[in-house]
Structures are given as structure tokens and as C-alpha cells.
Amino acid sequence: MNINSRLVSKNLSRFKLVTFDVTDTLLRFSRPPEMQYAMAARHLGCQNIEEQALSVCFGKHFKRMARDYPNFGKGSKYDWRWWWRTLVMDIFRDSHRHLSEAMLGRVADQLIEDYATQDCWTKIEMAERMVDLARVHGKQVGIISNFDPRLSYILEAMKIPTDFIVTSYDVGIQKPCPEIFDYALNLCNPPVLPSEALHFGNTPKLDYVGAKRAGWASILVNVTCDGQQGVLSDPEINPGHVFANFEEFIRALETTEMKW
After folding, report:
1. Could you give the count of Cα atoms lying within 13 Å of 225 in the half-sphere of its Cβ?
2. How far apart are CA 52 and CA 208, in angstroms?
3. How far apart are CA 167 and CA 184, in angstroms?
4. Rounded CA gap, 31 and 46, in Å?
5. For residues 130 and 35, is the Cβ–Cβ distance under 8 A?
6. pTM of structure
7. CB of 200 within 8 A of CB of 221?
8. DSSP class of 23
9. For the segment 71-97, what is each residue's pLDDT rounded down to a tens digit?
10. Structural domains in the chain plus CATH codes
11. DSSP 3-state of 198
């Protein structure tokens, strides 16, 4: 074992569990949603599809659906598939009014299937190494994500091994609620205390603050230069826990003694 490995081991010694958010933490979209949506529509024979129009409508309708039917419709009379189908159809209705209702339904169903495959996703740089690093040092590895039930298929397709997956839809609790982090602890074998758990995510409130309020340690990764100013001004966030990417965090693990 070299010096770097010993320091990594020391830095991670208090933890028995390491968990990760998924979107923009471990994985990102392989192409922007408007491009993916346009590709699906064109594949099904739709003409005159404008990506910019889709982009404008995507944000508006996503926010509306998240507000009116939080957690992908969990707890309502509708399920996650209806949630995504409605979102896609409303985006296209608003941006491409020449498409028939039957075609809108076909496009929505196609996209629901597409986003469960590896074609729509790519791994974040060095994320896989961080997962491997946690495993090499004997940690249980889990996922905690505000996501629908397709996540297990996505992670399998992307070849990211985990001990468990907690999605907000399956458990009916969304980050940043502490209860979703408590739920993850209950899946651990052997048992893990909150103080022995470390969570990685890219969203200040949902990931970092949520985990900290649950008694966990937390690290923010993939924070852009533009986003760092706002993040670092938040009194609940330790500037020493904010990293531009996994490479920067792993370098810190290997060269400095971390303060949790």
C-alpha cells in the first residue's frame, strides 16, 4: 500500500456507507433533452421538429408537472409512466401543434423506453473510479436519487454496481427529506449509523443539506465555477466540501487530511 492509498484509507476510515446521487453526479444525459426528444420524433416520421422550441417548452412544463404532481405522481391517482407521458405530450403540444394526438402518444412512449437504456446516458468523468474507490476500501455503496423505477435498469445498463438503490418514487420520499437517508441506512448490513455515512451529490439543497440534516457527512461535486459563488455563500455548506469534479475530490483524498 503506497502513501496515497494510506491517506485515502484514513480519510474514509470513519465511513461504512458511501452513497451517490445519479443525474449529474454519476451520470449525465448523453445529449440535451430537446435533442433526444427531437430524435425520437424524427425517428417516428415527424417533420419540422425544432429543438429550440422543445427546449423552451421543456423547462416550463417540467416545473409545472413537478409542482402539480411531485415525485413523478407518487401518492396521486397517476403513476410515473403517466407523469412522463403527460410531460412529453404537453411539451410537443405546446411547441409543435401540427402533430396528432396519436403521434404524441407514440413519441412519449418511445422516449420513456429510450431513457431506460444506456443510449441516453454517459458516465461523469472519474465517477466510476470514485465508486470503485469506495468498494476497494470496504464500504457499502448505495444510490439515493429522486428518480422513478427505471433507475435500476439504467445503472445495470451503465454497469455501475451498487449494494442497493433508493429512489424517491419507490419509497415515497424525496430528497432533501431526512427520512430518505434514514431509509437507506435501514438497508445496510451490517448496520450503519448516520455518522458513518457519506453522500455525494451535485445539488446543494437536495444532496448536501439533506444529507447533513440527516446526520451524514456530505460532499458536493460537479459544481460549476458559475455555481460556486452561490453555493459557497450558503452558511449550511462547508466550502471544504465543494469540488468542481470527482478528479479534484480524489486528488484531495490522496493528498490532504479531510475535515468532515
Report:
1. 0
2. 33
3. 10
4. 19
5. no
6. 0.94
7. yes
8. B
9. 999 999 999 999 999 999 999 999 999
10. 6-26+124-255 (3.40.50.1000), 33-120 (1.10.150.720)
11. strand
